[in-house]
Amino acid sequence: MPSIDDRHQAYVRRLAEYSQSHLLAFWHELDSGQQEQLLDDLDQIDFARCTSPIEAYIRNRPAVRIPDTIEPPTTFPIEPSPDQAEQYAAARRAGADAIRAGRVAAFMVAGGQGTRLGFDGPKGAFRISPIRQAPLFQLFAESLLGVERRYRHRPRWYVMTSPANHADTADFFARHNFFGLSPDDVLFFTQGQMPAFLPDGRIALAEKHRVALGPDGHGGSLRALAESGALADMRRRGIDTISYFQVDNPLVQTIDPLFIGLHLLTGSEMSSKAVHKAHDLERVGVFCVADGKLAVIEYSDLPEELARARNSDGTRRFDAGSIAVHVLSRDFVERLTAAGSTIQLPWHRADKKLPVVNERGELITPASPNIVKLEMFVFDAIPLARNPLVLYTRRDEEFSPVKNAEGADSPATTRRDLVRRAARWLESCGVGVARSADGEPAQPIEVSPAFALDADDLREQLKSHPLPQAGKPMLLAS
Fold first, then answer.
1. How many CB atoms lie within 10 A of CB 303?
2. What is the model's pTM?
């Protein structure tokens, strides 16, 4: 292990090479612990990787490019048409076979903190279920246990954390005995970091001994899969299909045989789920065919006249909203991230406010945006994939993220949607559900994913499991 002095001298040379010497400006004011923290922060930065973005995205503000042609995509519907029925049935069989054979892994992006929820800790530790108050992590673990019960194989789970929450996440799983999984079933790894930049291209200091660092975006998850060894681990285990989802959506199907089967049978390298937009200007990315390639256009970049456009039957023309649920082929991710690959997902610029240390060592709290953050988005890989597809799903079945402390996409709306879905499943099985005057279930209902993964699964489970007493909160759990 090199000494602090050796590491310091190496960075004196390296930072001079990249015109970032200011990061060591307060070195001699720091104690040894602070010096080591600063060097550890510098170790997280790929300075060569930053060179091109500094010129293209920091010193210059790239213009938003509107594609020359934007057309609605061809999509797979929620329910198949009569001539698609056999294709969907074959896809379900193919997906189920792949799951049983151990070819499918779950991949969760879980680098976020619960700050916006008023919660101190990893977002996945936030307690969300309506009766047990089970945390998000537990619901996803139970989903994988439900997959094992149904398909006789437990998928491996890859969990991407961030440096800020990695230790807390691993500790949370350990303290809860991995929610019934084995520690060998789960592989944790951290996503890459990207520094925040001052407008002139210099990397910002959050403190004299701390670089202003942040995640490189969910698009960086593909690079992290490769650099962490997760892709190599998949290859050794015979895993060729990756089911991607984010930690804030407890309604998601972590492993969906229909979705996986369509992906496999069509030869898709990256498949995506969509929901019908709630309204024309909903703040979600929109699937389009842009200049002949399937892509997601951010809501802020889609011209309003296209967002409001209608088909001849009055339906919305650009209606497929992205919910950040994908299936990727391992070979595709390996191709994108191979050493020497010239493929690079684009950066996206965001202007933010952040307290930073100025040249005199003073911490300045800004009144307006003062730094630039760069992130990559995973959906930017879609145009690079062969045969990408979009499958519609029902919003009330699979999409209710918990993002905000109150209002839309809050714990209250997510718990409401979990109860509504459970009630709908029970009613589809012929079980009466008491409802209030407003039509909402009169009592909380919770179905553990380990007990049932969907309405059909619940129907089978109820054949051998008695229902709890009516008129009280109803919990169905293994």
1. 12
2. 0.95
